[in-house]
Amino acid sequence: MRLFLADIQLILTMAILAGCGLIYEYLLSHYAGRVLGIMESTIYAMIGLMIVAMGLGAFAARKIKDAFQGFVYLELIIAILGSSAILIIGGLIAFSQLLPQMLADTFNLPPDAMPRGGLFKQLSHLTFNSPYFFGLLLGFFIGMEIPLIARIRESLHQKHLEHNLGTIYGADYIGAGLGAAVWVFVLLALDISQAAALTAALNLFTGFIFIIHFWSRLKWRYTLVSMHLVFAIFIAVIFHYGNGWLNQMSNLLYLDKVVYHDKTRYQQLTFTERHLGNTKTPIINFYLNGRLQFSSSDEAIYHNYLVTPVLAGSARHDNILIIGGGDGLALRDVLKWSPKQVTLVDLDGELLDIFKHPKKHLPSELANKIIKLNHLSLQDPRVNIINYDAFVAIDNLLSEGKHFDAIIVDLPDPSHPDLNKLYSVNFYARLKQLLSGDGLIGIQSTSPYHAKKAFISIGKTLAAAGFPNVQQYHDNVPSFGEWGWTIAAKMGATPRQRLNELTQLPVKQQWLTLPLIHSAFNFSKGFYQHKDKVPINYLGSHTIYQLHQKAWQSQQGLDDAYVQP
User: Fold this and answer.
1) Which of 3, 137, 397, 478 is deepest in the core (most CB within 10 A)?
2) Are residues 461 and 523 both part of a single domain?
3) Per-residue pLDDT tens for 68-81?
4) Tens-digit pLDDT profile for residues 364-423
5) Secondary structure element (H or E) that encloses residue 432, with its range
6) How far apart are the two ends of the chain, measured CA to CA in Å?
7) Is 469 contained in some domain?
8) Cross-strand partners of 444
9) What is the rounded distance in angstroms from the CA atom of residue 527 to the CA atom of residue 548?
10) pTM of the model
């Protein structure tokens, strides 16, 4: 009976450790995706690398003479490494990015002489890719678990077990499945350092139970128990303070003072503030996962260009649809046109609530500045907010027989595979069904300078969705550089023809004028020369995502672009 209970414990232990191992893969790949900014390929590379490392670890486990003693030390190593890896990576990245500035300040170097290339560039490259090193290390140690558990079972039974590996692998597969479920339904909602600490605590707890159960077979027992207690305190400290430390290291990488940061289920939010002197209003910048979304200094330029040409060229403004725009800034500009109803669709309900009720979530001073920016547009009684995935939500709108006088698509750049579908022929074709015959659709379309092919592809994709009159325009938004938008009519005159008929803008704008709109449709000589070679983005092709990633990497270089850890 005692042998049976020991066997059950080992099988359960294997299942638990398999779940922990899979969670570590997800943690490191998810974090590496944030750091490198190439979420899809980074996740695949990290998981593949860790699987290879696990194979190497399985081979290396043969060198451990005492499987009982080795297993306890192994769980200690995995727990300490798993709980601290992300903090170490964040610290290394922060150090490599701050080192040039520290040297420049120390030796009073001018900005154009700041050391960025050579050794410093290599150091930055190494630190940004350090998640792979820790993935390799963790995978190596995780790979030792199965061989050691198998040897321990045979040692207990004092014979070769015919179905030993089948039993162990069965527990491993089931445990990995449970680990995936825990990751999706529990740990994704937590801060990443807390998720790592909880997973490490499970490793530590499993090792401690193993010590108690196999007390007589171990050496240095009290030392092992003491080490578990010390590491338990260490992991508890990481759980409590780790996210604050990680945020502080991340905040060091922003040029301006971080005044608020938070994490929703889908993304990390950061507000920064730049003071320009006692007589000037501070500039507020808002970031999602380290990518700038708007700056209070020039967001009016971007949003005027996004909204004004679409509504000025549409026959009516009674019923407007906005896809994205959870900050309420595009909505603010739309409400100036006195619509009867505006429907806004955005996935992140937590982000929406921050901008809808800033005083409930943000520090008082920051909340007042956000209110001044978006005019509490999300609280307007004419606004119907749909907190749902836009790809699915538009089907619901179609089934309800909805039609809109104008549609504005204010989504983030297609820098993640999940966003690619919202730039596809399938998505635009369904939006076309929602648009009234005399209405216009406008889409933010990334930079025609930095991501030219992605910009052109958006226009071609919209045309492939059945819009006969697609045109594009651009201007400089200082915080982003050269930026572009796409506009299309479902039928009738082209957007530009409609705008040419105006003698003045029907609604006064904060920054934009009619002559500026007209000039924005002009591009440099030969801009569309190779348009035929630019592919269209069909659902599942990932064309826009790949074009966008390739363009920004070639323009900026992976090492020069900061993505918040």
Assistant:
1) 397
2) yes
3) 999 999 999 999 99
4) 999 999 999 999 999 999 999 999 999 999 999 999 999 999 999 999 998 777 788 999
5) helix 425-434
6) 50
7) yes
8) 485
9) 17
10) 0.79
The position carrying tokens 């994490």 is: 263
pLDDT digits (tens, 9 = 90+) for 199-244: 999 999 999 999 998 898 898 999 999 999 999 999 999 999 988 8
Burial of 515 (0-12, 13-18, 19+ CB in 10 A): exposed
Q: In angstroms, what CA-CA distances link 280 with 94, 260, 299, 480?
A: 30, 21, 17, 22
Strand partners, 341: 319
**CA 249 from centre of chain:** 18
Domain boundary among 184, 216, 250: 250
Please state the length of the chain. 565
CA–CA–CA angle 93, 94, 96 (5° rounding): 65
**CATH of residue 143:** 1.20.1250
Q: What does the DSSP assignment read for 325-393?
A: -TTSHHHHHHHTT--SEEEEEES-HHHHHHHHSHHHHS-HHHHHHHHHHHTTGGG-TTEEEEES-HHHH
DSSP state string for 458-482: HHHHHHHTT-SEEEEEEEEETTTEE
Q: What residue type is assigned to position 88 of the chain?
A: I
Kindly compute the dihedral angle of the four CA atoms of residues 451, 456, 462, 468, in this order, to the nearest 10 degrees: 160
Residues 201 and 120 in one domain: yes
Q: Do the Cβ atoms of 410 and 444 come closer than 8 Å?
A: yes
Q: Which residues contact 120 (CB under 8 A, 6 or more apart)?
A: 96, 99, 100
> Quick count: other Cβ atoms within 10 Å of Cβ 195?
25
Supply the range of the domain harboring residue 180. 2-250
- The DSSP secondary structure of 39-62, one letter per residue, reads HHHHHHHHHHHHHHHHHHHHHHGG
Digit-coded pLDDT (tens) for 249-273: 777 667 778 888 888 877 888 899 9
Cα distances (angstroms) measured from residue 143 to each of 53, 71, 134, 158: 7, 12, 14, 24
* Token couple for 61: 């486990």
**CA nearest 320: which of 351, 354, 356, 344?**
344
Q: What is the CATH number of the domain that holds 475?
A: 3.40.50.150
Q: How many domains does the chain have?
A: 2
**CA dist 470 → 53, 440, 465, 487, 489 (Å):** 50, 10, 11, 6, 7
Helices (H) and strands (E) in the chain, counts: 21, 11
Task: Give the residue numbers annotated as catalytic, written as ranges.
Answer: 410
What is the amino acid identity at position 90?
Answer: G
